[in-house]
Amino acid sequence: MHIVAMKAITKRFGEVVANHQVDFDLRQGEIHALLGENGAGKTTLMRILYGLYRADSGEIWMEGQLVQIHSPRDAIALGIGMVTQHFALVPPFSVAENVIMGYRESVNLDMKAVEDEVAAAAERFGIAIDPRAQVRHLSVGQRQRVEILKALFRQARVLILDEPTAVLIPQEVDALFETLRGLRQQGISVVFISHKLNEVMAISDRVTVLRDGQAIATMDTATTTPAELARMMVGRETFGVTRQGKHEHSAQPVLQVSGLCASDDLGLPALKNISLAVYGGEVLGIAGVGGNGQKELAETLCGIRQPTAGSLRVNGREMRGASPAEMSAAGVGRIPEDRHAGVVGELSVADNLVMEVLPRFTRYGVLDRKAIGQYAQELIAQFQIKARPEDKARTLSGGNLQKVLLARVLANQPDLIIAPQPTRGLDVGATEYVHQQLLAQRERGAAVLLISEDLDEILALSDRIAVIYEGEIVGVVSVEEADIERLGLWMSGAVKEENHAPAEV
Ligand SMILES: Nc1ncnc2c1ncn2[C@@H]1O[C@H](COP(=O)(O)OP(=O)(O)OP(=O)(O)O)[C@@H](O)[C@H]1O
Ligand SMILES: [Mg+2]
Question: Is the same domain home to 222 and 368?
């Protein structure tokens, strides 16, 4: 008998069918991966199980009983717990307080006894956490452990984790998997949502693939392969783009940064004494957990944010204090991190494509509409954009929008390309496309600075890898010498303490 059986679940949001007649079942004591691309309907299905959404139709059965789940309260009472990507912890409170909050009356509580109880539970479930620590002092990975413990403390027999590894460094992923294996041994069932094939292969007993809101198949993980899973997930063969071999890079760096400092939007130091160089014909990958200065670094290198100290040379020329337009004129191409902010939605695709080169299409102060249309048509063909020049940018999908942004930047053949999180939120097809384009720029001899929170992406594309932690470059290696263990340690900041000299890249 299945601990959970969801039958013919359908859920619509307006026009969108997020789940269409989905069957999903969960055995006791299994780790069941729910795999699918962005927007496939994974979160929706599990939010229905956890009582956050109501299905339009379909049934949920638990241990042979038809159940009605109207709220998370109902789900918890049935032994279902869910850890979402957005934690709901109270930072000034301790771990123990957060764990019991809303579960037990907290007036007149013997905190010592509660702490002991929480410590015992953490021990039993194999979760390394100090019950007395204040949540505000914890890392993202540790906060996730508190959320898991909180669900287990409420006697969850079914634990749903929505892309839990997205916020973790490799070592934390290992620790999480260790915990999940322990839970399985105690008979707890885990739903592990992911779009990462290697993780699904490593941790799950069975896997259900969702595509466009439909369940494509459920399989024993041991009987399938990453290639087969990828095909089911995407609906066609995928190849995976990686850089080919070592090759010559320019003698002089295209970008040379030394001692660069900058502040964040609150005026606090965000970049601390950053030194790095990027040569023509290479991809330098900047790895790191999100929020460690990546955004500020990209903005500073493009002239959007002004440095507070240090020097920034492009092709040997000092550019500190330059505006975005001056940076662009000096050969710096920026692929905007926020795709939607990077275009003007109400303007046409053509207008968005020429936005940065308008003078080229202006005669005696008048725009040459015909030339703009022609230029747009060429770029649309060259970059395989699925849109017409006159379509409004806001009607484009994320993948096509990213193509417009790439076309706009790359058509100018920049010497240096700054690419912060260029594939975030894109599907596999669009991601492969972006990777190919960036590698084509490397082939052309351009210098590419790739900033990404996705370590697999960094490893696939980069010639050299630098790790950013709390606004500092804490280490740099060539991709041949890079090992995940060491990169993970750098990303966690563990190395910063032992080696305080800022790394030269
Ligand atoms: N609250 C909502 N309102 C409107 N549309 C929604 C809502 N939640 C989800 N959708 C839509 O339903 C579809 C499935 O979304 P869902 O979040 O379940 O996908 P997912 O597989 O979890 O994707 P991701 O990997 O991006 O988290 C998408 O098209 C999404 O835009
Ligand atoms: Mg989701």
Answer: no
